[in-house]
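User: Structure please.
Assistant: Input sequence and predicted structure:
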Amino acid sequence: MPEKTFAYTQNRELSWLRFNERVLLEALDEQVPLLERLKFVSIFTSNLDEFFMIRVGSLWDLSLVKGGTVDNKTGLSAKEQLDQIFEAVRPLIQERDDICRQLHQLLAGYGISCLNPEELDKADQKYLRQYFTNEIEPILSPQIIDSHHPFPHLQNKVLHVGALLQDKGKTVFGVIPMPASLPEVLFLPGSEVRYVHTWDVILSQADRVFKPYTVAEKTVFCVTRNADIAHSDETYELDEDFRTQMKKLLRQRTKLAPVRLELGSSVSGRFTQYFCDKLQLSKKQLYVTSSPMQMKYAFSLAEKLPQALQQELTYPPFTPQAASDLVPGESVLKQVMKRDVLLSYPYESMEPFLQMLREAAMDPAVLSIKITIYRLARKAKLVEYLCAAAENGKDVTVMIELRARFDEQNNIDWSQRLEEAGCRILYGFDGYKVHSKICLITRRERGGIMYITQVGTGNYNENTAKQYTDLSYITANQEIGADANAFFKDLALGNLEGSYNRLLASPHTMKLRLSALIDREIAKGTGGRIFLKLNSVTDLEMIQKLREASLAGVQIEMIVRGICCILPQVEGETENIRVTSIVGRYLEHARIYCFGQGSEEIMYISSADFMTRNMDRRVEVACPINSAGARKKIHRLMEVERMDNTKARVMRSDGTYRRVTTGKVPVNSHDVLMNDAMEAAPKAAPEKTGLAKLWKKLQKK
């Protein structure tokens, strides 16, 4: 590949690390409530865990292959990428430790104290000893490693206490896995919120656990393993179904090669070398951190506080509002048959979509419901309504993706529940994940068949719909409905080469048609306009097409939350491209593509990012937005995010970011859009349809 290609592109993994640093920097923003700042540290930590398990794990596998491919955006080999990643992570760990220490000091001023067992007074230490004796010690499984006891398998992301032990001139290694049944933190008695980490309690009692050995050194540690399982790489019995195959793969996830070792404190060179030898890791894969290695507890600390303090230290509560496009109390199904509806999460509630499904489950005129599912909540009304529809004699087809990473078991469980209720279950394709978010309701009307189609940018997950910014478009446009019907037919037949009139779909046509739309703007020269809102940009062909448009004078504005492999403002390459990123209270998740301006503008929403996996290796859908009301709503969202000078950061030509400083008045796009939703929400009205009562009767039956 020519050297000049790398002038305007950067490595996706290093770009992702810069995104995660932006998440961490939210913990430094004094405008963010204090406990919310601690949550950002927790999110940074869990993000980094997944990055090592998946991205580093995948590169680790590639680095072992002789003559492996190189990154097409930087020319780096897998090994070179790993070296740069290991180096880039180190200062981020130091930054996290500094921020975490600062936050704990600030929280202590409010009576919320994270303590070490050694610094407690005698009464608290007595309480901990009793708790350890009664609740912890009986379920511990300590182990000695010597010539008669092999080094154990250390499970992925499970905290352990490790110790060098001495007895009668002999030195051995001892390990205590932290039982999964134990909480991350133990709260101490008293009026204030004081807690210790459970693993620190076990660490403090290591001498007692390992008697008669003497503890020479001890530390808390955690191994991160490669978790990038791929079902196509495995061998199965021919008569096994796909659900059984996925269950086997999930068991393998805990057994793959280590890619990182975290230590809770510095240890001697001898101890370090022991870890590296046994885990077959280099020292550059070892990180010492003073921050907690598990931080889920950050999301539950507020529950321990008095209400007044909760309000001071957390975001003001916000309830997703009633949809501005709908009349409360009237049938959603009947309303969307008359006019298109756009729901904007989390500012508006997902409830109208769920109510529409509930109505469809009971509507005698509804013949079928078809839906693609990627991720669901642990408790899902959507499944309840789909099951009810099947039990009421509707033809219900559910394409459920069992390979949704880290949600595999949840989807396996839901697929069994849906199947038991009589739904037809489809599982996708070898080598292609079904990532689209589309639902089709088919009704029999006097004039014939009528379609109601919903296309979304995010999952049908009732929990994340309150945390992620997404769009859900519901339309009775019959051309779109006919496309959706053809799309589901193709899925059922295993046809990935379907082409549709209104919908864009990958892997067959989306990239080609998006490229054609970019060409349309290129033909306009300096009059061309492109707006893209995405989570990630990594696909080299799309990047090269955007560069071509920039060179033609097309003005390109991109709001990219995370990875962005195209470098903007590079002289002679991408001077007409501007990239910003917004990281704030909610996770930016909607994908919007706009080509042109004014009456000539073509607008789509989609589940697909400009990533090779989305364009070439996933089943995705993009839907045109022609409704004037829906377009107005999306333009308002675009306008507000352009104005953001509080949470937005602009990308420089070297891939680094700086805060947006334009505008005299602070604008936080999430706050503005929440306010918009509250002002636009219709007043509640009495239930007119009686559907709620009817649904309760059916449930009792």
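Residues 78-108 form the longest helix (31 residues).
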